Amino acid sequence: MMIELNHVSKSYGSKTALNGVSLSLPQGEIVGLFGENGAGKTTMMKSILGYLRYQGTITLDGEPITRKNIARLSFATAEHSFFPHLSPKAHSQFYSEHFPSFREKRFLALMEFFGLPMNKAVGSYSLGQKNQFEVIMALSQGADYILMDEPFAGNDIFNREDFYKVLLGILEPTETVLLSTHLIEEVSAFIGRAVLLRQGRIVGDTTTETLEDQGKTLMQYIKETYQYRADRVSRALDELTGSDE
Questions:
Q1: Residue 194 contacts residue 208 (beta carbons within 8 Å)
Q2: Which residues neighbour 153 within 8 Å (Cβ) at sequence distance 6 or greater?
Q3: At the N or C end, where does the chain have fewer CB atoms within 10 A?
């Protein structure tokens, strides 16, 4: 059981966002999706969810992703997909009616963990609280595949670290998380696989177990893959502060 992308490409006018991406996401993995701004991370997630038109094929257990199986996917995005005028309690009732696999026990536990008020309109939450609620709904929907695109903008490091620990504790063996984030060092202990995008192409795909066997950290692997130049800052400063003579 898996999501499969085969030669997926997407362009916005003359700009290529995805360029022939092929990727398999089996159930039961926590996958980190990494890349610079504009690498194609959000475009890839939105293509999987059917929010964008693209070239190539994306399937779920060999079938196209349509209204028949889209409930097996959920999405947490900083753009937010909740109903701002509804309270969390009303969201819970709505999701229970529309998603037979809605995990009410998980929903209540996560609401308590983050300390979010149940009867207050979500639109009145702070930005950090809104992002927390977005993640809660994605995790509680009952989906097999949970896609998260920079889900914790506006949250402090303690909330983020505690959440990663809770995430490992609540996920069932059949649940897969695809997590797009720039917080590489924070998530390195919690993911099992890293996928690297650059200019719309997959340039790296490895497991944290492989990196451990090689004696490498995730950050070292990413820097090597992107051919990061450690002297780029000093060179730039030399050019900016050097004499014109």
A1: yes
A2: 78, 127, 131
A3: C
The sign of the dihedral angle between the CA atoms of 88, 91, 97, 98 is: negative
Contact, 181 vs 135, CB < 8 A?
A: no
Instruction: Pick the closest to residue 149 from 96, 75, 223, 215 (CA basis).
Output: 75
The one-letter amino acid code at 115 reads G
Contacts of 180 (CB under 8 A, 6+ apart): 32, 33, 34, 41, 42, 45, 147, 148, 149, 150
Per-residue pLDDT tens over the stretch 175-229: 999 999 888 888 888 899 999 999 999 999 999 999 999 999 999 999 999 876 6
| Among 55, 113, 109, 45, CA closest to 81 | 45
At residue 231, φ and ψ (nearest 5 deg) are -95, 10
Cβ burial 155-167 (10 Å sphere, 16+ → b, else e): beeebeeebbeeb
Q: What's the pLDDT score for residue 128?
A: 85
In this structure, are residues 42 and 29 in contact, taking their beta carbons and an 8 Å threshold?
A: no
- Rounded distance, CA 131 to CA 134, Å? 5
**For 116, phi and psi rounded to 5 degrees?**
-90, 140
* pLDDT tens digits, one per residue of 143-190: 999 999 988 766 677 777 778 888 888 999 999 999 998 888 888 888
CA distance 172 to 144: 9
Q: Can you tell me the distance from the alpha carbon of 8 to that of 12, in angstroms, rounded to the nearest whole number?
A: 14
Amino acid at 127: L
